[in-house]
Design goal:
single chain, about 110 residues, Archaeosine Trna-guanine Transglycosylase, Chain: A, domain 4, five-stranded mixed beta sheet, globular
Length: about 110
């Protein structure tokens, strides 16, 4: 079972269903029906297992399509999401296609 890790304890992680944007993986991309372990800071001494979730939807996107979608993902608006992406991944990578994954907690 693969791991999806978060570097921040987003409010969305308290919801039954939540979304996350992830760049496609070169080895084996995420897929609908995949069961994953969700961690906070998986490669850190503060590592914390948050639970088990299943990916039930996957869309290829260039970030959020509107402010509501950005808010659902934990940001103030689309501009806030864009700033975070640039800070985290750099300007060039921010404009590459991403997977918008929708997950549901199962355990």
């Amino acid at each position: 079972m693969r791991i999806i890790s978060f570097s921040k304890k987003w409010d969305k992680l308290r919801e039954d269903i939540f979304t996350t944007f992830r760049f496609p993986r070169k080895d084996k991309d995420w897929f609908v029906g995949e069961v994953v372990q969700v961690f906070y800071k998986s490669r850190s001494p503060q590592r914390e297992k948050l639970g088990i979730a299943v990916i039930f939807n996957k869309e290829i996107r260039l970030g959020a399509k509107d402010d509501e979608e950005a808010k659902a993902d934990g940001f103030i608006d689309m501009c806030d999401m864009e700033r975070w992406m640039i800070k985290t991944y750099g300007e060039a990578k921010t404009w590459q296609p991403m997977n918008k994954l929708t997950l549901k907690w199962v355990g």
